[in-house]
Amino acid sequence: MPLTIRLDTRLGPSVARFLEAHLQDMRAVSPPESKHALDLDGLRAPDITFWTVHRDDALVGCGALKALDPAHGEIKSMRIDAACRGQGIGSTLLEHIEREARRRGYLRLSLETGAMDFFRPARALYARHGFTPCPPFAAYRPDPNSVFLTKSLADTP
């Protein structure tokens, strides 16, 4: 079934429920001081662009792009419904976000994800797409529960 990626500025009840599941997962595996997932208010910030992924009318994923500066963006709130993981939806969404980052003229795209086993599939996805480890960026600090990844957009098409 085809996927549709939609810019979502409304962040309605279905998104709220979807994100609550994301936040519950983060609370279950990450200590509070290491939880960097955004809630609805955080995703409504003016420096955030948020997309939802739909298969037919079902919400199956989401992701956001945060402007850090004119040349650097951060991927936030990437989540794929647990029942839909392993079907290429994460790759499709990540490629969409990367295209938007390039369109904006960003030279670098970075993200923070967890260091725990729960996040291993996410780290593998990012590695397949050319993200490599980096030091903490923006306002992040070193954290043994976090993995920081980045990708140069300047040297790849």
Automatic annotation (TrEMBL):
<protein>
    <submittedName>
        <fullName>Putative acetyltransferase</fullName>
        <ecNumber>2.3.1.-</ecNumber>
    </submittedName>
</protein>
<dbReference type="InterPro" id="IPR000182">
    <property type="entry name" value="GNAT_dom"/>
</dbReference>
<dbReference type="Pfam" id="PF00583">
    <property type="entry name" value="Acetyltransf_1"/>
</dbReference>
<feature type="domain" description="N-acetyltransferase">
    <location>
        <begin position="3"/>
        <end position="154"/>
    </location>
</feature>
<keyword id="KW-0808">Transferase</keyword>
<dbReference type="InterPro" id="IPR016181">
    <property type="entry name" value="Acyl_CoA_acyltransferase"/>
</dbReference>
<dbReference type="GO" id="GO:0016747">
    <property type="term" value="F:acyltransferase activity, transferring groups other than amino-acyl groups"/>
</dbReference>
<keyword id="KW-0012">Acyltransferase</keyword>
<dbReference type="InterPro" id="IPR050832">
    <property type="entry name" value="Bact_Acetyltransf"/>
</dbReference>
